[in-house]
Amino acid sequence: MRFIRSLYITRLFFLLFAGVVILFVLAFVWKWLFPVALIALSCLFGFFLLDILLTFLIREPLKVRRELRAVLNLGDRNPVQLKIRNESNQPLKIEVYEGYPIEMQWRNRVNHMLLASGREKEISYDFIPRKRGDYHFQDVHLFISSILMLCKRRIIYPLGQTVQVYPSILQMKQFELKVFHQQTRAVGIKKIRRIGHNNEFEQIKNYVQGDDIRTINWKATSKRNELMVNQYQEERSQNIYSVIDKSRNMQMEFEGMNMLDYSINSALVFSNIALRKGDKAGLITFSDKIGSQLQAERSANQLRRILNQLYNQKTHFREASFELLYEAVHQTVKTRSLLMLYSNFESEFAMRRALPVLKKLNQKHVLVVVMFQNNELEDQAYQRIDSIENIYESAVSEKLIAHKVNIARELRQYGIQTLLTRPEELSVSTINKYLELKSKGVI
Question: The domain spanning residue 94 has which CATH number?
Answer without folding.
Answer: 2.60.40.10
